[in-house]
Design a protein that fits this description.
It comes from Novilysobacter selenitireducens. With 121 residues, the chain is mostly helical. The chain contains 4 helices and 3 strands; from the N terminus they run βαββααα. It folds into 2 domains: 84 residues, 2-Layer Sandwich (Alpha-Beta Plaits), CATH 3.30.70; 37 residues.
C-alpha cells in the first residue's frame, strides 16, 4: 500500500527535485500526484511500497536537517554582509501590499474591539 512521504503544499520546486533525486539515488520506488485543478489538493510524493517508509523517512530527516542548516547559514551570511531583506526593502518594493496589510490588521483589531466597545454603553 502506498504511503505519503511529502505533501507538496508550499514546497519549493528545488526541494521537490532534491527529494525525487534522493529517492532515485537510493532506489526507492515512488510516484507523484499532481495538484488538483481547483487547488483543493496540492499533490504529493508517495512511496509505492509502505515498507520503504522508515528508510525514506530517515533519508528525509537527514535531508531536511542539512537543508535547514544551509538555509540558516545563508541567512546569517546575508545578515553579516547586509544583503538580508528588511521591512524597509519590502516597503520600497511593494508599498501597496504593506499598506493594505496594515489596514487589514487595523480593521481586524477594530472588529475584535467592537463587542467590548458596544458592551461598554
Amino acid at each position: 500500500m502506498a504511503k505519503l512521504l511529502l505533501n507538496l503544499r508550499n514546497v519549493p520546486d528545488d526541494e521537490a527535485d532534491d527529494v525525487r533525486t534522493m529517492l532515485d539515488a537510493h532506489s526507492i520506488d515512488f510516484y507523484e500526484t499532481r495538484p488538483s485543478r481547483w487547488g483543493i489538493s496540492h499533490g504529493g510524493i508517495w512511496l509505492s511500497d509502505a515498507g520503504d517508509h522508515p528508510r525514506a523517512q530517515a533519508l528525509m530527516d537527514e535531508y531536511q536537517a542539512s537543508r535547514r542548516e544551509r538555509a540558516r547559514a545563508e541567512r546569517e551570511q546575508q545578515l553579516r554582509d547586509g544583503s538580508a531583506e528588511t521591512f524597509t526593502d519590502t516597503m520600497r518594493r511593494d508599498p501597496m501590499r504593506v499598506v493594505l496589510s496594515v489596514l487589514a490588521i487595523a480593521f481586524m483589531l477594530g472588529l475584535l474591539a467592537l463587542p467590548a466597545w458596544l458592551l461598554r454603553s
